[in-house]
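Dear Dr. H.,

I hope your travels went smoothly. While you were away I took the liberty of generating a structure for the chain from your last submission, since the lab meeting agenda had it listed for discussion. I wanted you to have the full record in hand beforehand rather than looking at slides cold. The sequence, exactly as received, is reproduced here:
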Amino acid sequence: MSSLQRRYEILLPLRFNDGEKVPDELIAESLLELEQEFGSVSSETQVIRGRWESEGHTYRDELVRVFVDVSDKRKTRQFFVKY
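The corresponding predicted structure, in token form, is as follows:
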């Protein structure tokens, strides 16, 4: 019997709200944490750009998409709710 699979996607910012670059070490730390938890992790090298507004300020995002494909289990869902 095969279990259902689920993809979890996370958009990690490449810049802080003040425009400063997020250190590569922080991105690598997130990838390593997911790999250690689930045994694998994937990411795209394409930069995703977005815009959003908060309290009258417009922010521009540069993001990287990170994803894991895992068995759909309660423990996994709980992990991502907290993450």
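Two observations you may find useful: The first strand starts at residue 5 and ends at 13. The chain has a mean pLDDT of 92.

With kind regards,
E. W.
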